[in-house]
Amino acid sequence: MNRSVTINKMSEQMGLTSRTLRHWESEGLFRSERDPSSGWRVYDENAILSIRIIALLRKFDIPLKEIKTVIANINALKLYTVINNRILALEAQKEEIIRYQNRLERILKYLRLQDSNSCMDKILAEMEAVYMDNRIENKMYKIVNLPPMRVAYHISVSTSPEDEAMTPVMEWILSSNLEGTARFFGGNVKPFPGRIGAPYGYGMCTTIPESIHVPKHLKEMVLPGGLYAMMESSDDVGESWKILMKGLTEDDKYHSDRSRLCLEEHIRNESSASSGGMLYHLNLLEPVKLK
């Protein structure tokens, strides 16, 4: 490709419509300039690289929202993360298809035992029972595989340490313009929560690119990643943890891995500014391993 390429040439070379290119640009994925002589949109080398990445990842049905995190910080680790997320989404879809197939096969098995004069009300009642019976098939949590992640963190110990641990991390991320690509994780550390009113520890960390220097008031480590049981928390975080842990005690395939810390991922609520709701909701992550 030339050092700069017009929109019509880019469309031809990449097999993309000019409408698609304009849409991706409107989403903030790259920027074009205008050729003063022709008025055509022109893409420089950075834009061309971004377009190549977007076009390839979209062929694998990776959402633009996740592609945007790759464009903001182009490296192998970020590519690994979004591709791994896509694999997990496909696995979840596959599990859902298998569940529906199992339900339909149960109905077929029941129908084989019926004759042409069987009561239709009875047959429909059985089908409704099969559809509604998800006590075993559907779990409150799913198993995810997190990659190793470089993080900056801060730990606080008090009777209410969560906000104290979170504030310096969040302030640094905002001041460094890293919020769009960062993931935020928290979790209890020693001394662990005990009796009501006693101080306990809480750590807050954020993922950071390899090229970013961590300031002195924060510390750095690598979260090991691996398998986790993940469940979205209700407003009652403690009760949600109890539900997750109870589910794992009954799981026939996985159990808790005490060699790694449990985590709470803070997911930003994009509608919070307009709705007045919570800024973040939590995904609970309990480390697990195969039995």
From TrEMBL:
Gene3D superfamilies: 1.10.1660.10, Regulatory factor, effector binding domain. The keyword Repeat does not apply. GO terms for molecular function: DNA binding; DNA-binding transcription factor activity. SUPFAM superfamilies: Probable bacterial effector-binding domain, Putative DNA-binding domain. Keywords: DNA-binding, Transcription, Transcription regulation. InterPro entries: Cass2, DNA-bd_dom_put_sf, MerR-type_HTH_dom, MerR_fam, Reg_factor_effector_dom_sf. Residues 6-73 form the HTH merR-type domain. Pfam families: Cass2, MerR_1. The keyword Transcription applies. This is HTH merR-type domain-containing protein.
